[in-house]
Prior knowledge:
By secondary structure, the chain is of the alpha/beta class.
Amino acid sequence: MRIFTASIATESNSFSPIPTNLDSYKDCFYAAPGEHPDRPTPSTSPLYILRREAKAKGWTVIEGTCCFTEPSGPTTRVAYETLRDEVLAQLKAALPVNAVIMGLHGAMIADGYDDCEGDLMTRMRALIGPKAKMGVELDPHCHLTRAMMTAADVMICYKEFPHTDYVERAEELVKITTDAVEGRVRPVMSLFDCQMIGSYPTSRQPMRGFVDRMSALEGKDKILSISAVHCFPYGDVEEIGTKMLVVADGDQGKADSLARELGIELYRLRGTTMPNFLTIDQAIDAALAKEGGPFVVADPADNAGGGAPSDNTSFLRRLVERKV
């Protein structure tokens, strides 16, 4: 079995004034073909799993470029097209392949491209043809689009937020995709749009229970995989939104029915999944009421980890005004 794998990943905050360029990727993480370190990362864990499985099963794995950078503003057009064309050229040189298994984020935006992953996957599908299989691992904070659904045979998002399970999800993705190549399963996907935007940390209820229910349904009644697509709320694109993705073995009706059932269940949780956010004064009061320290007060929407510039001085202004 011949499998190509690569990764281009970032999370793009449309409201950040800080553009993401080629140096952003090369300064953060850039591994040329064959140079990826022997450890998993959130966006490249499919490569890590494929290396391991190739040794055990005799597969031929062709590694392409792997790169990612921390969330920031949209990627420049020249940076995206340079990285995209680099990976496409590597895939073209590797043909023919039985499968392409990619580690992507799903919320990458570039100048001129609202859906970088959909663009990349569509071009990859054109190269490999309709018979080869395409599997993609995604961050749940992705924009799962029609173009991505059309190009891929199977997509799986991490289940946990914070993201602690990307290796396990990569293992599932590799197994389902390679089983499809060898005819053991016939994955079909269904996507249900919950038509909402929210935050869904899985370390607290009610999302903890919802994710556990999802997991309990997998591996039964022809259900191969279930993903809750959280979306990235700071990506200003048309196909943003919370969605449910179900992958079934050959039964489109079953996938459609379960995606709708779970999507409506998730929609009914709206407003209950968010952490308990405080006002600026409430946060300062809570810090002052405690012994010791230091304490951190933070604006989650101006979080550098979400691609924001972290330049909001509202907290500082209020601390000065209150003479803290």
